[in-house]
Amino acid sequence: MSAEPGSFEAFPRAMPRPMPIRSERLLLLPNHAMRARRCPKAILALWAWESMLGAVLAWPFAAIVRGAYGSHPEGDAVLWEPGGLALLDLLVRRLPAAGALVAHAASVLLFAVLAGLVPLAAILVSVGFTTADRRPPSFRSALQCAIPALAPFGVLLLTTLALQGSLIAATIVAASLVDVGFERQLGEIGAGVLAGGVGLVGLALVVLVGIVQDLARASAVRFAFGASEALRTALRTFAGGKARITWSWTWRALAASVPIAFGILLAGRLGGRRGAVLYVLLGIHQLIVGVRAALRVSWLSSAMRSVDAKGKA
Amino acid sequence: MRASFVLAWMVLALASTDGALGAPMDSPLEQDGAKVDAPAAERETPTLAHADDVVDYVLRAKLDPILHLVHGEGTIHFRNASTASVHELWIHLYLNAFKNDRSVFLREPIGGFRGTAPIRDWGTIDIQKLTLREAGAAPTELWPNAEIHREGDADETDARVPLPHALAPGETLDLDVVWDDKLPSILERTGYLGSFHFAGQWFPKLARLEPSGQWAHFPFHHLAEFYADFGSYDVTLDVPSSFVVGATGPAVETQVKDGRRIERHVQGDIHDFAWTAYDRFDERRETVDGVLVKVLYPTGYGAAAARELAAMRFAIPHFRSLYGPYPYSVLTLVHPPHGAEEAGGMEYPTLITTGGAWYEPKVARLLELVTVHEFGHQYFYGLIATDETTWPFLDEGINSYAEAETLEAWLGPGSAGALGGFTLSDRSIQSVFGNLAEHDEPIAQPASEFRSGGDYSLLVYERTAAVLETLRRTYGDAPVANALRLYTAKYRFMHPRPDDLIACFESEVGIRAADALRTALFDKGWVDYAVTSVSTKREEASAGIFDDGGKRQTLPSGALIGSSYEGWVLVTRRGTLSFPVDIELTLEDGTTQRLHWSGEGDSVRLPYKGPLDLRGAVVDPDRNVILDDNPTNNHASRSGARHAPRVTERLAYWGALLLQAIAP
């Protein structure tokens, strides 16, 4: 378990007990090497995971559309006709058992939130560690290393959701009180703007909680910490670099929204009703999902570097 | 060449088919009974320049904005314009709908629509004096003998006032009236919220006297609106000087004295009067098409006011071109403040109320929709003064059609909203939502007969508009525009009934269209066209056992002759309505051919023969029959295959993005 001087440390540096790694021995990367670009396969895997779940989420809805307009000579292109008559009719009158569809969507989302912890932990392993011959960890060993992190990840997820939920509720209440309480003094619009400001502050707090959660997840993998220790490390890390870490998340979040806007514009231009254009659009859309997945991995790498630096300090 | 061949063959086949197809298809409009010329536009339709002046009000009202009281005094001049003597008066006291929970309005078990919020502060109207003045006779106090409510019924919105002697046809009477209003917390178009006051149905108002001598009087029903005789209103409003006033008709005198603002509004040729007073109104004015348009809006709602003015810039000349000129010099738009939405979306002569948030996004055109709709009521209720209580579709339904027509002419297919390459038209909303209640109740029935506010709004507003739009799309713009032009010209300043509307359609569009209109309005008419099956195969020689000249011959099946395809398309119609429709056949190479079916009969089987196989068929491909109950069976493919690649791709993509936003 001795570190290779000046380059790699044995995995994991501060681990209290050995991780169950059967396939290969992983070493901790030096801080500067914890980069998303080192693990394109992890990005691809995340893209595949998200695209697969997206398709599962969409399938029942798409099946209803196939049943309704699949035999039309124009196909489902009629749903894009100006005026939206067919689309509105479909949404209002042809969605049988809408409750079942909602239940399906909720189930897929719940599954994605819970099962998504596994690829998330595996990605963090991939960005933080390497094999003895300095290759990114294999899919199998990344998953194996991810498993011990799931318990703290679960606790962190529940804690974060509870905190974020409370923040959202408190924000709604505070914004409503401000809206009503200041209407006399500031007028309806002034009070509305002030309430909107309260809402933005609440939203920012929710985002910050999410950022701290990602830092805690990174420390749980980096140091094999339990949830509480990981959270303490995350808070110390965040306190030591609030602006840098927040900006690191923010620019990636902003950058991740650009491809969506681009995709909307392009879809509007191309149409993509059928044939080659549809395949082109499919490729572009999947590229957008992939770019966003890459930015997510990039942020997780940044979080890993931050907790690693703080841990060393 | 190929397409012409197929078409020629099919026309031939259709012409020789018995039953539903009937006559040759080369002159479909004649066959459908529609008139394709534009007679009403060219004929001189007698139009009244002014209303028959039956009842004149000279009123004075003083507002106490702290206690939300209005003290009123004035005179009512009434002429018996009927053919029978009148022995009593009926006076509507509609503020009493909010007096207690035993009023008809509050006890009717109607959910949905509007007016369902709980009352925080009750409202009343109390007549103090109602005095009959006659030349050469002492004044007679009428109110002590008035029957304010019926026996066993606590509702006090519809009062009967016996006259000391009959009023013969053509005779007049004058009444002095003194009354007090307590405005309710804002509810169902009237009341107060803080310092915002909106006074609708705020004065003792005579019911309408029908030509037969019968009074068209009603308690204030939950879903009903109003009906009255035309006349002139001369109303002086007295409010605190810090308040801005909006009212029916132009302000002919304004003075500020002793801390009070006193405005006198005078307007003829109308049948109601409403007003508002608020100390936080801003104002914009603009002359549009010769009409002074005044927008009163809460401070900070400038963007909303600008959009409402823009809507009027288009709507006023557009309505003039279709339904005749707006005959008044002013139009006041009132945008109620936040919390007073119940006062919004309402019409009175020369004054309408709009509504919406100050940040109302432009992707949804709700603000424009409400504004154009309420302006449309200046015609369909204001000028064509139908009985809104008995026949609500005559104002709300026709006006909803006019609203959608105007918005589409102005904003195109995104007349209700547009986002990310999708557009939503007002007409689509009317079609889809109108169809929701098609089997529930008839459209043409009194407002009080509707089982729920949901049925009322879906049928009276949406489905009526969808019926008219279906007629326009199937019989053409010009005939339907002519029918409505004739209706609005002939019945301006009058009180038409459903038969009058249907007669205009019969005259301008044809008897079949008029029958469809009547069935749709009165008999829950509905329709569902469907392509039931598409079947083709390669053209084969005859097969089987044939006896020919004493010789028996067995011909094998499956022997191809030539390279043609033959088969048929079966199109069916269910329901009690029928409209002429197109049927579009799509061939294997993507080319299409259209045929016209009168739409009568239960079904039509279209034989097909041509060099290319059929891919599928669509009945009513342009969605002209927006009343169609189920548009998803309007098409079928020969193979039965079903694909939705675009939707599948888009949904999977957006699903992945959603998961990226939510999942860890």
Describe the fold and architecture.
The complex is a heterodimer of chains A (313) and B (664). With 313 residues, chain A is mainly alpha-helical. Chain A has 10 helices and 3 strands. In chain A, strands 1-2-3 form a 3-stranded antiparallel β-sheet. The radius of gyration of chain A is 23 Å and the shape is globular. Chain B has 664 residues and is of the alpha+beta class. An 8-stranded mixed β-sheet of chain B has the order 5-4-7-2-1-13-16-15, with no helix packed on it. In chain B, strands 18-19-20-22-21 form a 5-stranded mixed β-sheet, with helices on one face. In chain B, helix 5 (302-323) packs across helix 6, helix 5 crosses helix 8 and helix 6 crosses helix 8 (392-411). The chains are: A mainly alpha (313), B alpha+beta (664).
List unreliable stretches of 5+ residues of chain A. Answer: 1-23
Shape of chain B: elongated
Q: Looking across the biggest beta sheet of chain A, what order are the strands in?
A: 1-2-3
Shape of chain A: globular
Largest interface: A-B, 68 and 63 residues
Looking at how many chains there are and whether they match, the oligomeric state comes to heterodimer
Tally the beta strands of chain B: 33
Q: Sheet with the most strands of chain B?
A: 8 strands, mixed
**Count of alpha and pi helical runs of chain B:** 14
Given as residue ranges, the uncertain stretches of chain B (5+ residues, pLDDT < 50) are 1-38
Q: What is the N-to-C succession of helices and strands of chain A? A: EEHHHHEHHHHHH
Q: Please indicate the percent range of residues of chain A in DSSP E strands (runs of 2 or more).
A: under 5%
Distance between the termini of chain A: 20 Å
